[in-house]
Amino acid sequence: MPSEALLSVRDLRIAFGPVEVVRGLSFEVRPREVFAVVGESGAGKSLTARALLGMVPRGATTGGSVRLRDGADPVAGRGHRITLVPQDALSALSPVHPVGDQLAAAVRSVRRVSRGEARALAVAALDRVGIPDAARRARAYPHEYSGGMRQRAVIAMATVNEPDVVVADEPTTALDEERREQVLRVLAEQREAVGAALVLVTHDLDVVRAHADRVLVMYAGRAAETGPVRQVLDRPRAPYTAGLLASLPQDGPRRRRLPALPGTPPAPDALGPGCAFAPRCPLATDVCHDHEPEQRTVDGRLVACHRAADVPDPLREFV
Question: Which CATH superfamily does the domain covering 7-212 fall into?
């Protein structure tokens, strides 16, 4: 593991009873970068995000490690060294306390400051994320905020203590396109302001292309492909990545029926001995069905695929 990694994940395994849902996941997050985690629903993205902060149920993490740069357990750094921007801001905020009080409490949980100083820092944090009339709005309750304002408030809470790593779990869910772009812009500005790295969990490849430096593509609890965004999205080497890209609408005057990946992701308790994607993969051969592929370096990225060298241009007839 390179010494500059802020966050190191090695062979992470998460299980509920006998069913393993995250299966040997490894990656690193470097200083100030945006590291995206993408995949279909059920791939294990959000569970992985919560594991980074030690927020999975007790006993569910059955193997591997998650460590900050100095080897510290992220649980000890949660709230100040590593923080979360959750998917549902309304559920994340207490309904019975003003938003400003909640931010001030977050400040005082980390810093030895007076109530007045914490309050001033909370108001300043709301102002930085674009909450209008922040001093007055700090006295309001979460239900008095719009959806976009609540999302800005949880970004303020995640960055007020200047963390090393911010984990954003589908931060634009349920927002319209305009508010989505506003929230992503605010998140980028605040990350830059505090010098944090960002782990961005999303299903939106357009967001990944526009905002991320590197990307991890997950399928059935494993890494299918990991590498620089431009390499992975412009010339994927994993058939699953290629299939996702081939299924996106393309610019241009010609209209065609969008291809779609056949089938659905497997249930975690129904995985066979081979590659989990093999039943849906147009390139699969006997070895794919019989043997799970190991990760290997192909064209400057890590790929778990027996047929990586045979993946065609994803924007042609792949699926």
Answer: P-loop containing nucleotide triphosphate hydrolases (3.40.50.300)
